[in-house]
Write a structure and sequence with these properties.
By secondary structure, the protein is an all-alpha fold. The protein has helices at 3-63, 66-78, 84-109, 115-125, 131-140, 146-155.
């Protein structure tokens, strides 16, 4: 065998090894992309669960404490009649909900929280359009990131509430106080 033949055999082996290496790299790249997609999907699911879990936990906590539920109802429509202790409790509860909402907002903006689930948070934020919600926001807006605060002010604090929202009257299907039938 000549030196030239050995050279060509070596080149052929090197070319085959290069092709095999490229196939291996391609397979590894494909597996890495698939793994990244699985991790991204898992992250989104975790973000959705956390966001909705926070909202559900806030509602559950509030509903388990009759005095807190009554206080929030009173605060939304009759804020000026609250005692100092009631104001503090309302602010604490409202800040918890708003902090959760801000986290959900950033998850939504990042694409980790679907629009359909963000709608639940938009509905929850509607309490800010009530007189007591507006007072809470005026007192505590500075505690939130500008991007979230600007969103709230542009999309929530428009003063228009869907019919029956936050009237807190179960007896008359959510009608306002003026629309109630007198007790007999």
């Amino acid at each position: 065998m000549t030196l030239e033949a050995i050279y060509f055999i070596g080149q052929t082996i090197a070319a085959v090894a290069l092709v095999i290496s490229l196939i291996f790299v391609g397979i590894q790249l494909r597996q890495s992309i698939q793994q990244a997609k699985r991790v991204e999907a898992a992250t989104r699911v975790a973000a959705m669960r956390e966001a909705h879990g926070n909202l559900a936990n806030w509602y559950m906590h509030t509903s388990q404490h009759q005095h807190l539920t009554s206080l929030i109802g009173k605060a939304l429509n009759e804020f000026d009649s609250l005692s100092d202790d009631e104001v503090a409790q309302y602010i604490t509860s409202g800040m918890a909900l708003l902090s959760y909402a801000q986290n959900a907002f950033y998850e939504w903006r990042a694409g980790d929280l679907p629009d359909e689930q963000w709608k639940s948070w938009q509905a929850a934020l509607q309490f800010l359009a009530t007189p007591g919600g507006q007072k809470l926001w005026a007192m505590r807006r500075h505690g939130f990131a500008d991007l979230f605060a600007d969103y709230v002010e542009a999309n929530v604090l428009n003063g228009v509430l869907p019919e029956g929202v936050f009237s807190w009257d179960r007896r008359n299907g959510g009608a306002d106080k003026e629309d109630k039938e007198p007790n007999t």
